[in-house]
Amino acid sequence: MSGPAEPSSPILRAPRWARSGVWFLLVGGAAALTHLGVFVWLTQASTLWPEIANAVGFGVAFVVSFVGHRWLSFADAGTGVVQSLWRFGATALAGFACNEVVFMLLHRGVGWPGLPALIAALSVAAAQTFVLGRFWAFKR
Predict the structure, then answer these.
(1) Is residue 4 part of a domain?
(2) In this structure, is residue 107 part of a structural domain?
């Protein structure tokens, strides 16, 4: 008898780091779209300051992000769920602080409209979140 069948999906055949990266991008994209959707909805449906809408969007997207990263991006994490949650929470808050500073600088300082400023801020914070998530929150 031969060994187990070769996985048919290119993602499943890819090295572990590549699978982790693909899942990180997909989960991060889903979380970013969630964040953007909540932001747009709140800024159009209420009189909230854009910074508050950004914070609420972050809170909703945090749940999407943690669940997806814990069970997909970093499925082989060497930490328990509670430890990962605390670490990822700290990582996410650091990412949000970065996001909010970039957002406020672009929106209030430079005068960019809210949505483009938020997209730029999310992009800057994503790199920070990946590094901290990969090497600390979900340490292997």
Answers:
(1) no
(2) yes
Domain range spanning residue 66?
A: 15-137
In this structure, how many other beta carbons lie within 10 angstroms of the beta carbon of residue 23?
18
Q: What distance in Å separates the CA atoms of residue 100 and residue 55, rounded to the nearest whole number?
A: 8
Query: Domain total for the chain?
Result: 1
Identify whether 71 is part of a domain: yes
Given a cut of 70, is residue 8 above it in pLDDT?
no
Taking the C-alpha atoms of residue 122 and residue 66, their distance in angstroms, rounded to an integer, is: 16
* Residue 8 is assigned to a structural domain of this protein: no
- Per residue, what are the HEC states of 41-104? HHHHHCCCCHHHHHHHHHHHHHHHHHHHHHHHHCCCCCCCHHHHHHHHHHHHHHHHHHHHHHHH
- Give the model confidence (pLDDT) of 78-128 as tens digits: 888 899 899 889 988 998 999 999 999 999 999 999 999 999 999 888 888
